[in-house]
Amino acid sequence: MKKLENIQLNVPLLRRKVPNLTVAARSVELRPATVSNLCTGKIPVGRAEVRTLVALATLAECSLDDLIIRGEKMEMIETGIKTLDVFAPLTKGGTVGLVARYGMGQLVVLAEMFHRLKQNGFATVLLVPSGDHPEIKDVFEEVDVQVNSVDEAYEQLVVLGKNKEIAFAADRSNVLTGDIHQLQERLNNVGVTLTTFLVDLKGAAVDEDLPYGPLETLWQFDADLAARQKYPAVNPIYSTSSILEGGHLEQNHLAVQQRARKVLRRYRELRSLVTVGGMERLPFAEVDTYRRGERLEAYLTQPFYVAEEFTGKKGEDVQLRDTLEDIGKILKGETDSIDVEKLNFIGKI
């Protein structure tokens, strides 16, 4: 057994060996939510129960040394989207699952990701889902190659992978059939890696603990943020990434992220009091926390390039170092005098 430092689950191995991990986990009396949190790094491997790790190794028909690997340096793709880069970084060559109900903006986020990645030299490929899904057409403008079957996807990805990094997207329906896992395994065998985005056009993933199987990154959309038009409505508390664990982030990034998440979590609790009884219901000692959480939530909104036509706002790209610096200012109270509305849908402060 490896020393419990800088270690992580071998998520690609789990993805290959146990495609339907939800059912498999329940069959050995493991909670799918626990498995999901281990895969994304929300629960560090060092805190996992031994019986959990043994059960996962048994399901994958591998040894513990194969299941638990010393974390190689993961490469983060900096997207320029504030809330994603800070709270749930995108892992190059990994798989990210978008969990949202209809109307929360997951396809806008996918289109924006494709737009930004294309600017950085990626080829963008979409496996068009079967059935009637007219909303997916909103993504087409940012797609270099559309494919209609897994076999066609394989052929195109092998050719593209010789010269370019690839961003690939598919619907959850292709995950449930096992097609995506098989495609990733076939591509791995010929040395092609891709960054995969999985969406759920039916909106059923929100009711599942492990809707896509093992993931490196999870972007969970928030109904309250969407209802208040705080886009992108990605929940900074529950969205996560395996890149957050194992020493893959700079210490300052991790420290700022943890402090910000703590403030946002408490702000959400306090907001319920304010909604019911107004600011006078707040304990005096909590006023600063509320104000800073409110400003942080506003700051994490962001104009997207793909939405300029509809919002009238120019898309904004914010470098991670600027985002971390701005969040630090908010947490220290340096923006307490700035009106909250002035922090909505800006780039950097």
Structural write-up:
With 349 residues, the protein is of the alpha/beta class. The protein has 16 helices and 11 strands. The chain folds into 3 domains: 7-70, Orthogonal Bundle (434 Repressor (Amino-terminal Domain)); 95-215, Rossmann fold (3-Layer(aba) Sandwich); 251-343, Bovine Mitochondrial F1-atpase, Atp Synthase Beta Chain, Chain D, domain 3 (Bovine Mitochondrial F1-ATPase, ATP Synthase Beta Chain, Chain D, domain3, Orthogonal Bundle), CATH 1.10.1140. The chain has helices at 11-17, 21-27, 32-40, 50-60, 64-67, 82-87, 106-119, 137-140, 150-160, 172-176, 179-189, 223-227, 251-277, 287-299, 308-311, 320-332; strands spanning 7-9, 68-70, 76-77, 90-91, 95-99, 123-127, 145-147, 166-171, 195-199, 217-220, 240-241. The strands form 3 sheets. A 7-stranded mixed sheet has the order 7-6-8-9-5-10-11, sandwiched between helices. A two-stranded antiparallel sheet has the order 1-2. It has a two-stranded antiparallel sheet with strand order 3-4. Helix 8 links the parallel strand 6 and strand 7. Helix 14 runs antiparallel to helix 16 (320-332). The longest helix has 27 residues, at 251-277. The chain starts with 6 loop residues before the first strand and ends in a 17-residue tail after the last helix. This is F-type H+-transporting ATPase subunit beta. Its main location: membrane. InterPro entries: ATPase_a/bsu_AS (IPR020003), ATPase_alpha/beta_chains (IPR050053), ATPase_F1/V1_b/a_C (IPR024034), P-loop_NTPase (IPR027417).
